Structure formats: structure tokens, C-alpha cells
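testing teh design pipeline on a random one, pls ignore if ur not involved
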């Protein structure tokens, strides 16, 4: 799949051609393409808007920006008429939305705009998508067939996997997604780390893991935007992102369905790992759309180290 793309032709491999060469199934190719296109519309919304609260809260009790709601509406409308999506679950919707006839193949999850509270600071934010074959209740490893995220930064980039490696595309001036990195692979060990949550709220075992990374000279990289923070670990081919269990919230902050499953899928496809500290994210059963999990995601060495420190819970 695509290994034969020579340097000469690589610059003109757009997303559709890449997925065709990778042997991605037709309906899934079309669905991924239709979702990727929404990145242009959401980016346009980001450019025209300033940070206005929509006056609503999502199921997590978080204030919704007008941008959260409009990004969600763009995605839902695009998927509604795709012909491939039966149900849609979004961080901005109160419940699962039936958007097809019921006979369609795929179930799509969305964090339409992750890190939206950063939009007024002009820091990078993103869209996170999971594509499940059938229902999404159960283990991600059994239901997920693809995942992607779009990063709205100095460039608009899109990283996707349909189970045949993890690949990055850049949106060019002509509005095409052109291949920029094929088969991204994480090294066994990296040199950057991201730390979610407040130090005073960390558990002693998480604190000991962080002190280990600091003693080893890892460089702190944390923007507060899950998408660019994860993207940095992937594009720098190593390191670890953590948002741990906290003393008052043992499940941490990030959402299994909307944020963690898609990133775990992409990271495993790039030779990395993702765990809640005990089990692989893709092996955790989704029981509730609002489920949260601690997350340690990135290179095998660092994720393995995190598991070691977390197992040493002091009795
Ligand atoms: P969202 O904007 O979709 O609610 O996600 C925000 C998340 C995620 O982007 C980031 O990793 C985390 O919030 C940052 O949390 P803290 O502000 O607690 O660091
Ligand atoms: Mn989010
Ligand atoms: Mn969000």
C-alpha cells in the first residue's frame, strides 16, 4: 500500500488517491474524504468568528462556544447526507443522533472543536473523529475502522488512519489535502512530555513518574490543546502525553469516546501505545458516551515506564 510512492510523485498524492492506493474500502474512503473536507468549513468559521459563548453547556457541564456549536452543525450536516453514516455522537450533543435511514454502515464520533477555549489566544486547535463499523459500544479495538484529526494551526493538517498506517496531509492553497508524511512511525523512546491537570491534584505515583521524566531530561511540551499536543508527539516521532487520574477525579478529564479512542487508534497504527495506566485504551469497553479515562499515550518506552510507576501504588 503506497510504499512504492516515489519522491517525485509523493508531492501530488492527495488524500483520495492515497486511500485508493492503500486499498481503503470505497465507502470508507468517501466518508473519510467528506469528513476531511469539513476542515475547510470549520477553519473558515474559526477565521470569521471571535470567542463568543453560545450560552449553552454540553453534557460535561462545559460552557459551549458558538464555534463549538457551529463546528458540530457543520459536521452533522455533512454526515447527514453522506449516505454512509447511521449514527453520530458528538461532545456537543446531549445524546447519540440517528442521522441515516438506519441501514448505513458507520457510526461516527466527533469532538468537533477540541481546545476551543484557546481560540482567542490564536493557539492551534483541532477536530477529532472516530469511525466505527456498527455500534460504538464495546471495545474500540473491535469497533473502530478509522480515525482522523485536523489541526488548525499555521497550516491546516489532517492525520488519518484506516488501519493501514498513520499518514499526514497538508491542505494546500488549492484546497487539496496533499500527502506530507506517509507511515509515520514512533521511535521506541522520545524526549518530550505533556502534563495535564494540576500538580497539587496528581496522585503520588503519577508525580513519581513525572519526576522520573524530568530527571531524564525530557522537555515539557504542553499547549492545553489535546490535538496539537498529541500531534507534536506523533510528528516528532516520540514522547508521551499524559492527562492522569486526579485525586478528586480518578477518571481524569479526557473523554474515551470522543478524544482518546481516535488518538489511541492513530498512535497504535504509528507503532505507539495508549493506556489508562492499567489497560490499553482500545481494550476498554465503552459503556457510556460521557466516559472519561486517564491517558498515557506515545512511545512504547515511556508508556511502559508510566505503567511501571502507576503499578507501584504505595501501600
Ligand atoms: P475541549 O476543548 O474539547 O473541551 O477539550 C479540552 C481538553 C483538551 O483539549 C486538553 O488536553 C485539555 O482540555 C486541557 O485541560 P486543562 O485545561 O485542564 O489542562
Ligand atoms: Mn476535546
Ligand atoms: Mn471539544
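output:
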Amino acid at each position: 500500500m503506497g510504499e512504492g510512492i516515489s519522491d517525485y510523485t509523493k508531492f501530488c498524492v492527495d488524500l483520495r488517491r492515497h486511500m485508493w492506493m492503500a486499498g481503503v474500502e470505497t465507502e470508507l474512503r468517501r466518508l473519510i474524504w467528506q469528513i476531511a473536507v469539513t476542515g475547510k468549513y470549520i477553519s473558515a468559521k474559526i477565521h470569521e468568528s471571535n470567542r463568543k459563548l453560545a450560552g449553552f453547556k454540553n453534557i460535561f457541564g462545559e460552557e459551549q462556544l458558538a464555534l463549538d456549536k457551529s463546528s458540530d452543525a457543520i459536521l452533522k450536516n455533512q454526515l447527514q447526507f453522506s449516505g454512509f453514516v447511521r449514527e453520530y455522537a458528538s461532545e456537543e450533543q446531549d445524546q447519540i443522533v440517528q442521522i441515516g435511514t438506519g441501514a448505513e454502515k458507520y457510526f461516527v464520533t466527533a469532538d468537533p472543536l477540541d481546545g476551543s477555549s484557546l481560540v482567542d489566544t490564536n493557539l492551534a486547535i483541532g477536530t477529532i473523529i472516530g469511525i466505527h463499523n456498527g455500534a460504538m459500544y464495546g471495545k474500540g479495538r473491535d469497533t473502530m475502522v478509522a480515525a482522523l484529526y485536523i489541526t488548525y494551526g499555521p497550516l491546516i493538517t489532517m492525520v488519518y488512519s484506516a488501519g493501514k498506517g498513520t499518514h499526514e496531509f497538508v491542505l494546500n492553497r488549492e484546497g487539496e489535502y496533499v500527502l506530507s508524511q506517509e507511515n509515520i512511525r514512533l521511535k521506541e523512546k522520545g524526549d518530550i512530555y505533556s502534563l495535564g491537570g494540576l500538580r497539587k491534584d496528581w496522585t503520588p505515583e503519577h508525580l513519581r513518574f513525572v519526576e522520573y521524566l524530568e530527571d531524564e531530561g525530557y522537555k515539557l511540551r504542553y499547549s492545553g490543546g489535546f490535538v496539537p499536543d498529541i500531534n507534536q508527539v506523533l510528528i516528532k516521532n516520540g514522547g508521551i502525553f499524559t492527562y492522569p487520574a486526579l485525586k478528586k477525579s480518578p477518571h481524569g478529564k479526557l473523554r474515551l469516546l470522543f478524544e482518546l479512542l481516535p488518538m489511541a487508534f492513530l498512535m497504535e497504527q504509528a507503532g505507539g501505545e495508549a493506556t489508562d495506566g492499567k489497560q490499553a485504551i482500545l481494550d476498554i469497553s465503552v459503556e457510556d458516551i460521557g466516559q472519561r479515562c486517564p491517558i498515557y499515550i506515545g512511545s512504547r518506552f515511556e508508556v511502559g515506564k508510566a505503567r511501571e510507576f502507576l503499578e507501584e501504588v504505595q501501600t
